[in-house]
């Protein structure tokens, strides 16, 4: 800072007027105002310490800073007072969400494992099993045994009416109605057709269940064809034996000749009536 000392006085005596900031002869920074008084032929100089000029501004600034700091502190305290319960609630809510997510993941894992087990069992069953819609009768899901038994690919089965299996459609419709009403039905044997048109006889167990609040029906079909053929063959054999026995009876009566038959498998004897009469 440039020393002013007598500079303001010299400028005033020269007829000038104005202000000047500088260092006075005491080494203090001052603001000097000078002016020439023409009537008195004098130069007037007035000075004031710059520290006195700055003091009010510094006090005002400090007051503002202190007031702002107090407001900030009070605001922070109020925020903490109000925010802590909210933060705690948010933390608790976050913990609950994390716990719920963890539980859901565990449930999803269990369901996934259960579904895998169900699918393995579903596919491993040797009997045909298929799920179908109670209203449209369209097949929703079928195991591999269904494809093998009826000759359809799995893609062909999806969406196909289960009545396509039946060679006795009206009876099958009645069975569906019974399952809807009573929840289950057992059919000793029903005449079905394979995809290639060949005959098939099955034993059917039908049921209605509720999955995700929706009714679903399913059927378990056991191939009864070989057993039915065996039963028919056995019935035919019994009929032929009965006819043969009747012929023997009549022939014996006419010829007065008795007859008998020994079954080596059953270890039983059969005697005609005429044999009894002779003996």
Describe this structure in words.
This protein has helices at residues 7-13, 50-124, 144-150, 154-157, 169-182, 225-255, 273-278, and strands at 18-23, 29-37, 42-49, 128-132, 139-142, 184-193, 199-211, 214-223, 260-263, 268-271. It is built from 7 helices and 10 strands. Strand 6 (184-193) and strand 7 (199-211) form a beta hairpin. It has 279 residues and is of the alpha+beta class.
Main attributes of the structure:
279 residues, 7 helices, 3-stranded antiparallel sheet, alpha+beta, 26% strand
Task: Tell me the number of strands.
Answer: 10
> Which strands sit side by side, in order, in the main sheet?
5-4-8-7-6
How does the major sheet shape up? 5 strands, antiparallel
Radius of gyration: 57 Å
- Apparent shape: rod-shaped
Mean model confidence by pLDDT = 78
Structural class computed from helices and strand pairing = alpha+beta
Element-level helix/strand string: HEEEHEEHHHEEEHEEH
Total helices: the number is 7
Determine the strand fraction and express it as a percent band.
25-35%
Helix content range? 40-55%
Give the end-to-end Cα distance, rounded to a whole number of Å.
Answer: 165 Å
What is this structure's SSE topology?
Elements lengths: L6 H7 L4 E6 L5 E9 L4 E8 H75 L3 E5 L6 E4 L1 H7 L3 H4 L11 H14 L1 E10 L5 E13 L2 E10 L1 H31 L4 E4 L4 E4 L1 H6 L1
Give a quick precis of the structure.
By secondary structure, the protein is an alpha+beta fold.
């Amino acid at each position: 800072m440039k020393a002013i000392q007598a500079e303001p006085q010299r400028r005033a005596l020269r007829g000038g007027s104005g202000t000047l900031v500088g260092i006075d002869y005491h080494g203090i920074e001052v603001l000097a105002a000078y002016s020439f008084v023409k009537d008195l032929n004098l130069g007037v100089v007035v000075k004031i310490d710059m520290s006195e000029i700055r003091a009010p501004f510094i006090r005002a600034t400090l007051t503002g800073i202190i007031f702002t700091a107090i407001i900030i502190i009070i605001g922070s305290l109020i925020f903490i007072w109000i925010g802590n319960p909210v933060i705690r609630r948010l933390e608790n809510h976050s913990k609950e969400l994390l716990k719920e997510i963890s539980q859901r993941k565990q449930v999803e894992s269990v369901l996934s494992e259960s579904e895998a087990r169900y699918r393995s069992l579903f596919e491993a069953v040797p009997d045909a099993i298929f799920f179908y819609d109670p209203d449209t009768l369209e097949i929703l899901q079928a195991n591999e045994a269904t494809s093998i038994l009826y000759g359809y690919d799995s893609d062909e089965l999806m969406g196909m009416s289960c009545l396509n299996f039946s060679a006795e459609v009206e009876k099958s419709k009645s069975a569906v109605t019974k399952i809807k009403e009573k929840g289950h039905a057992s059919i000793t044997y029903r005449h079905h057709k394979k995809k290639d048109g060949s005959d098939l006889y099955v034993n059917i167990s039908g049921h209605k269940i509720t999955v995700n609040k929706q009714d679903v029906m399913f059927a378990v079909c056991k191939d009864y064809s070989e057993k039915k053929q065996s039963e028919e063959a056995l019935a035919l054999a019994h009929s032929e034996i009965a006819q043969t026995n009747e012929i023997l009876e009549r022939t014996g009566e006419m010829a007065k000749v008795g007859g008998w038959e020994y079954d080596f498998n059953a270890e039983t004897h059969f005697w005609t009536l005429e044999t009894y009469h002779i003996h």
